[in-house]
Specification:
Two copies of one chain form a homodimer.
Chain A: H1 28-50, H2 55-67, H3 72-79, H4 83-95, E1 99-103, E2 111-115, H5 117-137, H6 143-163
Antiparallel strand pairs in A: 1-2
Helix pairs in contact in A: 2-4, 3-4
Chain B binds a DNA duplex through α4.
GO molecular function, one term (chains A, B): DNA binding
Domain HTH marR-type (chains A, B): 29-158
Keywords (chains A, B): DNA-binding
Chain lengths: 165, 165
DNA sequence: AACTGATAGTCAAATCATTTAGCTAAAAGG
DNA sequence: CCTTTTAGCTAAATGATTTGACTATCAGTT
């Protein structure tokens, strides 16, 4: 059995759906938000294998691309792993040429992990169409609609942050 | 160094931000969407450890809770792992009492993995406040605003699906 | 300048998670 | 029946992460 088939066109055998899912009723928008979450995960898996790295290493790459050079400890903090793990992640990324280790200019203990331009470009090639495609959607809405969408998302983020403490 | 600190109140040393992040300009909403994605991941990690399971096993639980009893192969398909991995996931979930293995009523090869009511309740206790908190946000918008939000999310999902082929 | 405590990065060994490959039993379709 | 497919499992191999060192450096005290 190989992993990663995304179908799930399961018959589900509606007859057997005794003790089925508990019915939590939420609105369309809430369901769609959840769906986008799932799709993101699938998308990132796809890009990861396109760049020949595992999900975790790609996650590190995303941070490096979004924020520029980071130290191994910063990477560790952002990914929620130990610094030992970060060392190994940087080892793997270095091995495939996605990053280089540069000496930290002022702290001689430190290391700066710098994404290579070629890899940034490669990653961008996969990710930009999505980012831009999503951003362009906003053009089809009126100013007030756009404002509502932004406010909604800001509040969603806020609810998440609340629940995170 | 322990994992999972969520702060990242890094000084970032604005001076050193030479070769900084490439500036891809997108609108507020797009950034917020990305932020919600990150927060979701943090939230799920938190709930996972509250339920004493790893992220993957919690992912399986989410599917079981959302869809009701599933076979190990269905779990494997949904998580994108091998059926061997699914066996082990179900082993671990069984060990901590989150699921039971029941014989499939009609297929004697098959197994139904059933989430235990207590664990469903426990998981719901963590997840429902978030789900409901997010869904309630919609009440503060007008009908047309709500429609815009829903349409936006539907289209976002669509763009993701496009990029997934 | 010399001490102390914290921080940065790494390594080796142990632990945990997943895949690969192979196996048995049962179902499904000629 | 007979063949092929499907479901689930196991054991061994591989991968990934943590734990617990250890060294070098930094930053603040005195």
């Amino acid at each position: 059995m190989q992993p990663f088939t995304v179908d799930d066109a399961e018959p589900t055998s509606a007859v057997l759906a005794v003790s089925g899912p508990p019915q939590i009723e939420v609105r369309e928008a809430s369901k769609l938000l959840r769906e986008v979450l799932q799709l993101t995960s699938a998308f990132e898996s796809k890009v990861s294998s396109a760049l020949s790295v595992n999900r975790r290493d790609f996650d590190a790459m995303q941070h490096l691309i979004a924020s520029g050079p980071l130290s191994p400890s910063q990477i560790a903090r952002r990914l929620g792993v130990t610094t030992a793990a970060a060392t190994i992640i940087v080892d793997r990324l270095t091995a495939v040429g996605h990053v280089t280790r540069e000496p930290h200019p002022t702290d001689r203990r430190g290391v700066m992990v710098v994404p290579t331009p070629a890899s940034v470009d490669a990653a961008m090639g996969h990710v930009l169409p999505l980012i831009m495609g999503v951003d362009r959607l906003l053009d089809d809405f009126t100013t007030t609609e756009r404002a509502a969408i932004t406010t909604y998302l800001r509040r969603v983020a806020h609810v998440y942050q609340e629940q995170l403490r």
